[in-house]
Amino acid sequence: MSLNITNIKTSSDGAWQGDNPLNSAFPLLILQTILVLFITRSLAFLLRPLRQPRVIAEILGGILLGPSALGRNKQIFHLVFPSWSTPILESVASIGLLFFLFLVGLELDLASIRQSSRRAFCIALAGISLPFLFAAAVSFILRRSGFDDEVPYGQLLLFLGVSLSITAFPVLARILAELKLLTTQVGQTAMAAAAFNDVVAWILLALAVALAGPSGPSSGPLVSVWILASGLGFVAFMLVVVRRVMEWIAKKCSSPAPERAFADEAYICLTLAGVMASGFMTDLIGIHAIFGAFVFGLTIPKGGEFAGRVMKRIEDFVTGLLLPLYFASSGLKTDVAKIQGAEAWGLLAVVISTACAGKILGTFAVAMMCMMPARESLALGVLMNTKGLVELIVLNIGREKKVNKSSVLNDEMFAILVLMALFTTFMTTPTVMAIYKPSQTTRRRSHELQDTSQPELRILACIHSSRNVPSLINLIDATTSAAAKPTLHLFAIHLVELTDRSSSIMMVQRARRNGLPFINCFTIPGTSYQIAASFESYCHASRVTVHHSTAISALHSMHEDICHVAEDKRASVIILPFHKQWTMSSDEGVENVGNGWRVVNRRVLETATCSVAVFVDRGFSGGGLDSPEEAAAKKVCVLFFGGADDREALKIGCGMAENPAVSLTVIRFLGDSCDESDEAVLSEAKVNLAAEDEYIEKKVAAKKVVEELVSIVRGKGFQLVVVGRNGAKIGDMEEHQADNPELGTVGDILLASTATGTSLLVIQHHDGKEMKGKESVGECSV
Predict the structure, then answer these.
(1) 161 close to 355: Cβ distance less than 8 angstroms
(2) 300 DSSP assignment
(3) Are 97 and 105 in contact (CB under 8 A)?
(4) Quick one: where is this thing mainly located (predicted)?
(5) Reported pTM
(6) What does each C-alpha distance from 444 to 183, 392, 613, 648 come to in angstroms?
(7) Cα 618 from Cα 760, distance rounded (Å)
(8) 751 pairs with which residues across the strands?
(9) pLDDT digits 0-9 by tens, 635-672
(10) CB–CB of 474/421 below 8 Å?
(11) pLDDT digit string (tens) for 549-570?
(12) Phi, psi for residue 27 in degrees, rounded to 5
């Protein structure tokens, strides 16, 4: 049944009135969006074990929805993607693309690019110039083979050269984070070179659009000159005038004025309107609208809080919902079946090999000249060959741009270049993993430099947010005696999840060389600044040496970073925050920071080569422990059932007993049998306990162990209970099914049964080779 396009309605009257919703614009757009999101997210899930960036799934999803796969069934394809819906889908996708390119401009810091090393500039220039030379050769081959003679050689060379020379900066950053290369020499150089490459790519793209010339009645060389001159004037106006205005707005939003909340909303709305106005101006000039949005993103200051606020407002909606529609619209134009015959497939092989050879060889040669090792130079070349969304944007503009009523890139060439972008990006991760493995070398060197004869105390404490800091400081104060503090080294790590969000990439750009995924100091505004300030104050107020840093990584590999750093820093214990945070004075005020962090804790417990403590904070952030008036306020209890973990918990309790601000109670539950190691540790603990401390032994009926355990903890009013994770189970404890296995049986029972105000410290002991020589340290301290 044919549909009259002029009668298309926005919404339908409903199926009960005999109206097909798919013949209306808005219901059809909803269905198309759901289908696109389902396909791309499913592919991203399937490709996750291969450690591929999400852009691969989005490009593949677009191709599968297009004529290459779904389009083979004409009836279904025209039902879901009828021709009249294409302008609507592309308009919505273009809005998402406009704001995404604004986010890309927001990610790029021109100041940091100017500060990049000469090596990064040389590598970036080589990675651009050599692919352009190879593109000239490919363009000549295409012209000799009779490829689209109506398209001038210059325009074809320009678009082909830009597509072959591009490096996708956002995609590269996520690949580097996935491979733990962010702070290696390769990662730092690749990030700097890719940022410079990204700026040059946009300049070349704007140049290509301007020089391609208009196809209307006013076409001519003079018009192209006017377009180019107007574009340069627009950029100058944005970077000189608009940039100062945005600096003033960013400063106003950072001031602690009472009307700041209203001002923030007004200025953010003004900024979003500025994105669209900038896009309109460049479209009016004759350059694509996305170029204006990108330049406007460059004008916003990167150092304050304003850029982060703008990102948080729009990035999830843009990258999660609207941007996949752009990949779908690109896929609808990609027909792999257009690549027919041996000549066409041979051309695909030539384009792929040319793209890889130009980028890899150019980067490799210059990196070797800069005295980088061969493996690092080769890995850098492969990394710089990463393509992504910018590649698709160039190809779509080239396909839409008409010269002599013919597209600069026809359907066959468009499909070839899309497959080239897909292949080069897909090969990056496995190729780099095969030729470059820096983490093993780093860990081997760090072990060679270790000196286990030093009696220093080393604690690795992980932090989710600034709310963890006061309780963590109190815990460290309670756990270490005054005599032990001068030899204590506290490595505090702010754990930051790396996602596909643009805000993650802004954090990545601030990375510095300091171990595997670490930043030398907290340079990110907001939460990280508060954490840094808290630890600086603690460092000055006590004699503890504090090293604070930030780990930026995906959650599925965060445990690797924690364990690697624990090895490199020779930590004797890792303190992990529980995945739930109590925010009020009752159990109703519980905030779950995410199940992903719970998985991180479990994996650290499984793989760590030192002892691990899980800290459940339920109000342990009260006043400082060093003040005399707080001496009676902190009541700590150690529950002992037997086993290596309980012995470690008892040793930590003995260390707390040396602090005059802590009152310690040791409660031993007697079982049917006793271990010699348990008896030895208990005997030593009895001798070391002060007169005001308490030691209790309990013999409880088998069916009332859990009841008695909960009753004791509730009745005594302890602020902190220290238990072993895998202690001996007696009586009805064996029947308990733990909801939180990372806390062990006793910890899970207490978490479910005790009121807010009783915090838990659950200890898992490690007795491997790394812990030898540290047992004497653990007797009085963590």
Answers:
(1) no
(2) S
(3) no
(4) membrane
(5) 0.74
(6) 17, 42, 26, 29
(7) 8
(8) none
(9) 899 999 989 999 999 988 888 888 888 888 999 988 76
(10) no
(11) 777 787 888 898 899 889 888 8
(12) -60, -40
